[in-house]
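--- STAGE predict ---
source: upstream dedup step, 1 unique chain passed
mode: sequence only
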Amino acid sequence: MKTAVEWLIEELEKEYNSFPLLRAEDCIKAIEMEKEQELKIKIQCFKESLQFIDDNYMVELLNIRIYNMEQELETFKSE
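--- STAGE serialize ---
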């Protein structure tokens, strides 16, 4: 599945054959920013869903997943 940034780059390349104003570093940074934002949204959704779950096992699984995603998010911040 393509990110929105990857799709946009492909569309610009189709339309203009090349897009000289777009540098590879900028594309990579934009894709990373998009993935970071997606991860933040997932974390927020999981945290909000916890209040509706009565099953302790499922809550623990979600907490583990949230923790892992937060650790992954830290890698974006450290780069």
